[in-house]
Amino acid sequence: MPWKSINRDEKGQVDCPIADNLLGISWVDSGWVPILNPGNVLDYFSERSNPFYDRTCNNEIVKMQRLTLEHLNQMVGVEYILLHAQEPILYIIRKQQRQTPTQVIPLADYYIIAGVVYQAPDLGTVINSRVLSAVHGIQSAFDEAMSYCRYHPSKGYWWHFKDQEEREKAKPKSKKKEEPSSLFQRHRVDTLLLDLRSKFPPTFYQPKPGEKPIPVEVKKEPEPPTETVKQEEREPATKSSAPAPASKPPPEKRARLQ
């Protein structure tokens, strides 16, 4: 919660309006700052422009009657006392409810640092503030996480960060390793190579690496004589010229008897 400073001008008027929540404001009177000490710090705190001071307290009655602060122990009601002093910068003033000369109930604490008056928060306010801060941080984290979430019916959910593309561009591109061929691919290639080798046999052969290649003698199969070829051609021709079986004549017509 931001602090609002309340200063008093030369006429004794307050520069800004007083807020309902005193935990978010501060007050200072620059004319008192150089001369503050444990003896006059309560007088400084009881200034009329101080929003933390209750004018219905017993200190105001003692001040009007020009009595000492020792008479506060014999009164009943709200009072202010100097609880701790660390000259010249820190003073702690307590607001308490006196019930008996030996029994009091603390109501609030105020600390003065370099002349600036603040109200010390109570335990409930501190816990409430810490819980709200934690919840706000968690809610902000969820909102930011949801802004990076993407969804597509075919892909599903994934995260897309703003600096992801920059990181991918900054990374050095690594060469993809070639995947080894499958068993089917290797066997298929072997059969193709054997087929090509049978169709196109090598003309040279190298027995050992580094030696001169030796020409390979290709044995040609003897061609069949032309007479046998002609005979084979004639045989199917004679088979085709064989007489076909005689067909049966149509049946004779017989005369009808009258």
TrEMBL record:
<comment type="similarity">
    <text>Belongs to the Mediator complex subunit 6 family.</text>
</comment>
<protein>
    <recommendedName>
        <fullName>Mediator of RNA polymerase II transcription subunit 6</fullName>
    </recommendedName>
</protein>
<dbReference type="InterPro" id="IPR016820">
    <property type="entry name" value="Mediator_Med6_met/pln"/>
</dbReference>
<dbReference type="InterPro" id="IPR038566">
    <property type="entry name" value="Mediator_Med6_sf"/>
</dbReference>
<keyword id="KW-0010">Activator</keyword>
<comment type="function">
    <text>Component of the Mediator complex, a coactivator involved in the regulated transcription of nearly all RNA polymerase II-dependent genes. Mediator functions as a bridge to convey information from gene-specific regulatory proteins to the basal RNA polymerase II transcription machinery. Mediator is recruited to promoters by direct interactions with regulatory proteins and serves as a scaffold for the assembly of a functional preinitiation complex with RNA polymerase II and the general transcription factors.</text>
</comment>
<dbReference type="InterPro" id="IPR007018">
    <property type="entry name" value="Mediator_Med6"/>
</dbReference>
<feature type="compositionally biased region" description="Basic and acidic residues">
    <location>
        <begin position="217"/>
        <end position="237"/>
    </location>
</feature>
<dbReference type="GO" id="GO:0005654">
    <property type="term" value="C:nucleoplasm"/>
</dbReference>
<dbReference type="GO" id="GO:0016592">
    <property type="term" value="C:mediator complex"/>
</dbReference>
<feature type="region of interest" description="Disordered">
    <location>
        <begin position="200"/>
        <end position="258"/>
    </location>
</feature>
<keyword id="KW-0804">Transcription</keyword>
<dbReference type="GO" id="GO:0006357">
    <property type="term" value="P:regulation of transcription by RNA polymerase II"/>
</dbReference>
<dbReference type="GO" id="GO:0003712">
    <property type="term" value="F:transcription coregulator activity"/>
</dbReference>
<keyword id="KW-0805">Transcription regulation</keyword>
<dbReference type="Pfam" id="PF04934">
    <property type="entry name" value="Med6"/>
</dbReference>
<keyword id="KW-0539">Nucleus</keyword>
<comment type="subunit">
    <text>Component of the Mediator complex.</text>
</comment>
